[in-house]
Amino acid sequence: MDDNDRMERLRKKANNLPLVPGVYIMHNLAGTIIYIGKAKILKNRVIQYFRSQSRHNDKVRQMVANVNDFEYIICDSEFEALILECSLIKQHTPKYNILLKDDKGYHYIKITRGQWPSLKAVMQMDDKDAEYLGPYNSAYVVRQTVDEACKVFKLPQCQKQFPRDIKPRSRPCLNYYIQNCSAPCGGKISCADYNDSFAQAIDFIKGGAVQSVQELKAKMEAAAENLEFERAAKLRDRINAIEKIKQKQKVITSTYMRQDIIALAMSAEAACFEVFVFINGRLTDREEFVVETVEDATAARAEFIRRYYSMRDNIPPRIAIDGEFEDKQLLEEWLTQKAGRKVSIILPQRGEVEQLVQMCLSNASERLAQRLGQKGSRTAALDELARLLGLTTPPKYIEAYDISNTAGSENVAGMVTFLDGEPFKAGYKLFKIKSFEGQDDLRSMREVLERRFDEYEKNKDSNEGFGRLPDLILLDGGHGQLSAVVPVLKSRGLVIPVFGMVKDSKHKTRAIAADGGDIAIKANRRAYTLVSNIQEEVHRFAIGFHHKRSVKKNLNSELLQIKGIGPKKVSLLMKQFKTMSAIKQANLEELIKVSGLSQADAQNIVEFYKSKMLLR
User: Fold this and answer.
1) Is the domain of 79 the same as that of 55?
2) Residue 599 and residue 420: Cα distance in Å, rounded?
């Protein structure tokens, strides 16, 4: 059966679905479940998949291409369908639903035995000769605890084994010099003192900072009374280190005692959900989930909430999220029922919680950047720009345009491209305005975009240079430039977001021009910096080309003042000597050698520049 027959069969089956709430289950040719969804009205939702594929994003098109059949389950309400959908997704983990691995598992602190014991964060108890603290649910907490204990009590965190790797004459690593390690490798601490520090580190882990400080203070006072001033000083330093750790922990706190913070960072290749877990007002855990490309952030956030809390029993009374999402009322009702108490999902706009959301978003952007090999600031800037402009995904490939002329003379345009937030100079293009003479920036901009997309039609199979469509177009200018360009895109059936870049009286980026009016941008620091850089770069590129042509024109016009020298002979001279400076310095013999130039012409040129020198 060919693809048209398959789609026709699925359309007919979908047309016979009832107009009631329910869950639909998509199967591939092998019968494997590849997608599960819920619907308020089954027929209306499912039939959408098998109509025109041009309406779908890439992910949906790919899923539909693999659907061979579907089944459905009728429910009494959309809320009942939501609960059933969550249960079935958790059971089957379909390929085209957001895939989250519940990789929390259990985590342990490993304590090795021997003369020189060590601390490590591990996931398995696989060493019979070691002691383990745990299990703990949070890998973040385990890593943080081990790191803090090692730094406070100056325990080595390297891979060296003692006493095998003790070399008294060797030079310790940097951790020793920044006072994060006692350097047993270099013989800087005795075995007895090391074990004393190690025992205190274990007490710190088991009893916490407060108990450790109390115990260390008692030991410090006893050492001082016994005139063991060196030991007392070391204990004092450990107490100070613990106090610094406590202060550091207070930085990331919340006045709301129990809540989760969720943020989504997106790029063209992937997306990352970050979750901050606050218990008793402190950040106690964080989780990151890198998933495939997200093309609809509102749907993705809703699906993430369903998947994440399907895998969790401990649901907070409040969840703060970074953007709009679908099914708010349904999700709150489901979470409330699951938790056995009221659960609210909020989108904070200001204050402490909004700052925590931004911190969560920055971490998601950094994690995504690490996965994609980009700088976190660029990823965050593109994500912020997409949110500001209402784009479904961050723009990977951006084109920007600017017009430059002097009172209509030497009318030119520059096009610059940015790839992943960085200038992509291989895509830069220059245009000379050809369709008219004089000054008309709007008409010039329209001509440039028409020519650009004419070239796209010729080269679109290559997907390179003009054959590649941008994810976003930015025009140096306001609503006039937009009105000139939008019809060009519509006439070709191209759906590309296009906006203007508006400057203030000091020629700095002020706002972004959109169909509905200006969008303020200065409050969005990352996006503002990115757009400002794009606007400055396209202006530099366009005005540089204009200046170069103006200088060339002025220089050429100087040659035209010489008797017997016309445009053709100017061209011959420039071809031979390359620069005006070389022509000015050429002697009679050199000029005569130019093919097409007479001896009289050469003489006139020499005399022209000699007379100009005398007038100076």
Assistant:
1) yes
2) 58
Q: How many helices and strands (H and E) does the chain possess? A: 19, 19
241: Cβ–Cβ under 8 A, 6 or more apart, which residues?
Answer: 151, 152
pLDDT digits (tens, 9 = 90+) for 431-475: 988 887 767 889 989 999 999 999 998 988 888 889 999 999 999
553 is a domain residue:
no
Going 521 to 525 to 526 to 530, the CA torsion angle's sign is: positive
In contact, 510 and 504? CB cutoff 8 Å: yes
Tell me the C-alpha distance between 412 and 597, whole Å.
32
Does residue 483 lie in a domain region?
yes
82 close to 113: Cβ distance less than 8 angstroms: no
Residue written as token pair 């989504």? 264
Cα separation, 567 vs 573, in Å, equals: 10
Query: 418 and 511: one domain?
Result: yes
**Taking a C-beta distance cutoff of 8 angstroms, is the pair 115, 163 a contact?**
yes
Instruction: Specify whether 245 is located in the same domain as 267.
Output: no
pLDDT (tens digit, 9 = 90+) per residue, 289-341? Answer: 888 777 788 988 998 999 889 878 789 999 999 999 999 999 999 999 999 99
40 lies in which domain range? Answer: 3-92
* pTM > 0.70: no
- 388 occurs within a structural domain: no
- Collapsed DSSP state (helix, strand, coil) of residue 73: strand
* Dihedral sign from CA coordinates of 145, 148, 154, 158: positive
Residue at a domain's end among 251, 276, 295: 251
Same domain, 229 and 263: no
From 235, 251, 267, the end of a domain falls on 251
- Structural domain count of the chain: 5
Alpha helices in 163-228 (DSSP H): 174-177, 191-225
Are 366 and 405 found together in one domain? no
Among candidates 261, 281, 486, 471, which has minimal Cα distance to 382? 471
- Separation of alpha carbons 201 and 27, rounded Å: 55
Distance CA 380, CA 365 (A): 5
**Which residue is associated with the tokens 């639909």?**
24
